[in-house]
């Protein structure tokens, strides 16, 4: 399957409306006048945009896996979470009970459906939802802010400006340090600062444990493949968070030098030429997708005649891996632990 903009089996096209009539008819809340210095107000900067809330948001909508899991991890669940959408896999086990208690829809809501939940805050784990183009766009952040809805994008995916998407990601921001800083900022905005500090400490400890385990080991070269429907492949590039996960797990991205976009189409000849030691799939895309569902992707790679001579195929080091597990999120340390199990089994 392909990634995000292609692998989704069917997505409603969310059309941005420029008409003032549409803005007023959608049921969004009126835009409040909030001064940054107002008592109790909190202002943080996210993706270069100032986000000011008069107090902890009470009606939060989470879009996509990283956003949903972030809110559960911060303890912001059934009492303040008015909607969740668009999971690529089950949430991590510690959050399963909390997720079962909140509203969920499998596809991205259209703009009107999102606003009908009357959110005061929208957290997105995918920057395309605020892009001005593409069939995954709901609205821009500026548009929602004008309606009184504050927004946030998980920081490693920050585009260089509102309305842009993956092509505008700053590679320097694709790091665990960015995730830690993002959690601290969100903790202040959501009124759960102590929990955010605890969570960052937990994640740092988990990363350190994985890194200590693989320290000094030879780093295998790994390709993270996306199986497209026509039999071709794309790879996770150097700016994809999968690269950071591989590094934490004591491996390196065989295509890490590619940085023009997160997913890059490559020929089978180039796959053979780069000859990765290990291949991981990018299996996706619904709330029930688990590792075992990736066996079809694994078999496609293992039985592709064009790849028969590659080291990973010859040694049968092709493993199912979830697209959700390479998200730029708190899920990354868990994913690094799994990758370390695969590439350093001894």
From TrEMBL:
State the signal peptide span. Answer: 1-24
* Domain spans labelled Fe/B12 periplasmic-binding: 59-346
> Has keyword Glycosyltransferase?
no
Question: What are the protein's UniProt keywords?
Answer: Signal
Q: Which InterPro entries match?
A: ABC_Transporter_SBP, ABC_transptr_periplasmic_BD
**Per UniProt, what is one Pfam family of this protein?**
Peripla_BP_2
Similarity comment: family membership: Belongs to the bacterial solute-binding protein 8 family.
Name of the molecule in the record: Iron complex transport system substrate-binding protein
* Species name: Pseudonocardia parietis
